[in-house]
């Protein structure tokens, strides 16, 4: 139903293939960024779910230059998947958390290879300003560009509980400024943060009203060395079953507009450090169950968008 596939949601990888005429692979880049929620600038200890890698499952050593990381990534992906086109992906920590003149050098270094067609930058809504957005907007004139905001929830009580360090209004201000610059925005949300299904779907409704460009849905998980792992061991939190998660993903996507691209619904990058839930390690199984649930419902992304 979407992008000439049998998917019932707007899968980002299929969207990219239609747009560029070939599969586009992301090259994950470690530029050695930090985070103001970990270094004490706005808070201490960071978000309760974030481990020492900054939720970065496939980091290259940042001892390599950015250019070398890109070239190595292209070499590996070309050999493994016969890949032809690529996007630079700054994932770990907060990738706008530097002065704008440093950011310009970092971003442009990742775009030097002629096979790079785009760039995606993961950050926090409290770590952008006019100058940084203007820089990214300038890049978007020549490259397919995304800014990924870690929102996690639209409920301030939840953001406070996970020690996020900003509120929903902060996200809205950053979102509006980013869209004014013509930059694509992907929003990250997490299921399982002490919220009811109704509260999670309220976040879907709020994001639907914004008509966000992209979405990444994560399942809350306890990783070794995190505050959340301690809370799990102390029985302060439990996690959704896979069936509950699959059903809620479909509920969530039904509310979003059909043009919102879906960048992530499941992942298996944390097997070595994952404590719970254990089912999270089987990415393909989860994605197949989401497909089957949509078929069972005879539904699709956007079915309840108003």
Descriptive tags:
seven-stranded parallel β-sheet, 37% helix, 9 strands, 306 residues
Concise summary:
This protein is about 35% helix and about 15% strand.
Tell me what the structure shows.
With 306 residues, the chain is α/β, with parallel strands linked by helices. It has a single domain (12-297), classed as Aldolase class I (TIM Barrel), CATH 3.20.20. It is built from 10 helices and 9 strands. A 7-stranded parallel β-sheet has the order 1-2-3-4-5-6-8, sandwiched between helices. A two-stranded antiparallel ribbon has the order 7-9. Strand 1, helix 2 and strand 2 (85-90) form a beta-alpha-beta unit. The longest helix is centred in the N-terminal third of the chain and has 16 residues, at 66-81. The model has no long low-confidence stretch (mean pLDDT 93).
Query: What is the number of E strands?
Result: 9
Average of per-residue pLDDT values:
93
Radius of gyration based on Cα positions = 19 Å
CATH superfamily: Aldolase class I
Helix content: 25-40%
List the domain count as a whole number.
1
**Unreliable parts:** none
CATH architecture: Alpha-Beta Barrel
Measured distance between first and last alpha carbons = 19 Å
Residue share in β-strands: 15-25%
Number of helices: 10
Largest sheet: 7 strands, parallel
| SSE pattern | HEHEHEHEHHEHEEHHEEH
């Amino acid at each position: 139903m979407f992008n000439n596939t049998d998917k019932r949601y707007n899968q980002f990888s299929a969207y990219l293939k239609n747009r560029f005429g070939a599969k586009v692979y992301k090259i994950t880049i470690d530029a050695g960024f930090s985070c103001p929620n970990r270094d004490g600038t706005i808070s201490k200890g960071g978000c309760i779910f974030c481990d020492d890698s900054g939720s970065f499952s496939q980091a290259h050593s940042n001892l390599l230059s950015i250019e070398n990381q890109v070239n190595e990534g292209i070499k590996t992906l070309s050999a493994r998947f016969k890949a032809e086109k690529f996007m630079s992906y700054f994932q770990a920590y907060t990738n706008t958390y530097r002065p704008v003149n440093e950011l310009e050098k970092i971003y442009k270094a990742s775009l030097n290879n002629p096979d790079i067609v785009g760039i995606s930058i993961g950050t926090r809504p409290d770590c952008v300003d006019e100058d940084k957005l203007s820089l990214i907007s300038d890049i978007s004139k020549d490259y397919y560009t995304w800014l990924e905001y870690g929102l996690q929830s639209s409920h301030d009580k939840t953001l406070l509980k996970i020690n996020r360090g900003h509120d929903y209004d902060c996200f809205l201000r950053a979102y509006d400024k980013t869209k004014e610059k013509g930059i694509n925005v992907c929003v990250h949300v997490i299921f399982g943060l002490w919220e009811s299904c109704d509260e999670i779907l309220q976040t879907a409704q709020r994001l639907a009203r914004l008509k966000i460009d992209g979405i990444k849905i994560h399942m809350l998980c306890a990783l070794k060395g995190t505050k959340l792992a301690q809370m799990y061991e102390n029985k302060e939190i439990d996690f959704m079953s896979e069936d509950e998660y699959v059903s809620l993903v479909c509920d969530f996507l039904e509310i979003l507009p059909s043009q919102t691209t879906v960048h992530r619904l499941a992942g298996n990058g944390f097997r070595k450090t994952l404590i719970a839930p254990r089912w999270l390690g089987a990415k393909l199984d989860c994605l197949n169950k989401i497909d089957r649930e949509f078929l069972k419902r005879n539904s699709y992304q956007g079915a309840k968008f108003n």
